[in-house]
TrEMBL record:
<dbReference type="GO" id="GO:0005635">
    <property type="term" value="C:nuclear envelope"/>
</dbReference>
<dbReference type="InterPro" id="IPR016024">
    <property type="entry name" value="ARM-type_fold"/>
</dbReference>
<dbReference type="InterPro" id="IPR013713">
    <property type="entry name" value="XPO2_central"/>
</dbReference>
<dbReference type="GO" id="GO:0005049">
    <property type="term" value="F:nuclear export signal receptor activity"/>
</dbReference>
<dbReference type="GO" id="GO:0005829">
    <property type="term" value="C:cytosol"/>
</dbReference>
<feature type="domain" description="Exportin-2 C-terminal">
    <location>
        <begin position="170"/>
        <end position="273"/>
    </location>
</feature>
<dbReference type="GO" id="GO:0031267">
    <property type="term" value="F:small GTPase binding"/>
</dbReference>
<dbReference type="InterPro" id="IPR005043">
    <property type="entry name" value="XPO2_C"/>
</dbReference>
<dbReference type="Pfam" id="PF08506">
    <property type="entry name" value="Cse1"/>
</dbReference>
<dbReference type="GO" id="GO:0006611">
    <property type="term" value="P:protein export from nucleus"/>
</dbReference>
<dbReference type="GO" id="GO:0006606">
    <property type="term" value="P:protein import into nucleus"/>
</dbReference>
<protein>
    <recommendedName>
        <fullName>Exportin-T</fullName>
    </recommendedName>
</protein>
<dbReference type="InterPro" id="IPR011989">
    <property type="entry name" value="ARM-like"/>
</dbReference>
<feature type="domain" description="Exportin-2 central">
    <location>
        <begin position="2"/>
        <end position="169"/>
    </location>
</feature>
<dbReference type="Pfam" id="PF03378">
    <property type="entry name" value="CAS_CSE1"/>
</dbReference>
Length: 273
């Protein structure tokens, strides 16, 4: 919790970018996945019982027991994912785990509750991570229904939550499917037409975070802006002036005090688009 609040970017690198190899949680996850490969039935059954118990205790007092759902969601990921990469998300699943049922029952309600975006922030971050992990398993309609909820979470006061939302949006826009009409070539699931209705609210949310004077240069936010511009193509023409104004203002800030090479790279890519 202290790392989540006091050093959010360190938390993100540990939790989302795979630099947690030496942590107890990562070692536990690797152990569970190894047991799932060797004893799939027994391990899945035992872990499912623990997950059910943790979620039952969480439901009795969510605000006081958020750490229990945090543990349950990470155990879910350990049991359900057999193969995973940062660029592609989950590519092979445990067929004994109903991921979509877990999502509908335990993940989606947390994301849908936008009445207080700062409530139970670790659980919200975990749920967004769940969506990001299984982004390839969602249909286009499901992704389109999730996008406004993720955009809303850009308004959280918690850096981890708003960053996870931006990261999840950016990676959702990279999901591709093989299309027989293009000779089997993979094409983006989200295209210009699909993204267009969300552009105004998405840019508003991303630039609100980018313009915040309290926050350091967040390369995840800038990468999400870059990806949105790439996918939107000509759809950005109506908002080109305001987008350029925001980007040039960001460029002026980094010219005065450049500190994050990744941020600068995505900023220049965005301007090039």
């Amino acid at each position: 919790t202290e790392l989540f609040e006091d050093n959010p970017f360190d938390y993100i690198q540990l939790d989302m970018e795979g630099s947690d190899a030496d942590t107890r949680r990562r070692c536990s996850v690797d152990l569970v996945r190894g047991m799932c490969r060797t004893f799939p039935d027994h391990t899945t059954s035992i872990c499912t019982e623990y997950i059910t118990q943790l979620l039952s205790q969480y439901a009795q007092s969510p605000d006081q027991n958020s750490h229990l759902k945090d543990a349950a969601l990470h155990l879910m990921l350990a049991v359900s994912v057999k193969a995973h990469t940062l660029s592609q998300g989950a590519s092979e699943l445990n067929e004994k785990v109903n991921v979509m049922e877990i999502f509908t029952t335990h993940v989606l309600p947390e994301i849908q509750d936008t009445s207080n975006l700062n409530q139970r922030p670790i659980v919200r971050a975990d749920c967004i991570k769940f969506v990001n992990t299984f982004r390839r398993q969602f249909s286009l309609d499901q992704l389109k229904s999730l996008l406004p909820l993720l955009i809303s979470h850009l308004g959280s006061e918690q850096v981890v939550v708003q960053t996870y939302a931006a990261l999840c949006i950016e990676r959702m826009l990279t999901v591709k499917d093989k299309n027989p009409q293009t000779g089997g070539r993979a094409v983006p699931r989200f295209n210009e037409t699909e993204l267009q209705p969300f552009l105004e609210s998405l840019f508003t949310g991303l630039f609100a975070v980018l313009d915040s004077p309290e926050l350091k240069e967040n390369d995840y936010i800038m990468k999400a802006i870059m990806r949105t511009l790439n996918v939107a193509k000509a759809s950005i023409i109506p908002v080109t002036a305001i987008v350029l104004e925001k980007l040039t203002a960001a460029l002026a800030r980094v010219c005065r005090n450049p500190s994050n090479p990744q941020f600068n790279h995505y900023l220049m890519e965005s301007l090039a688009v």
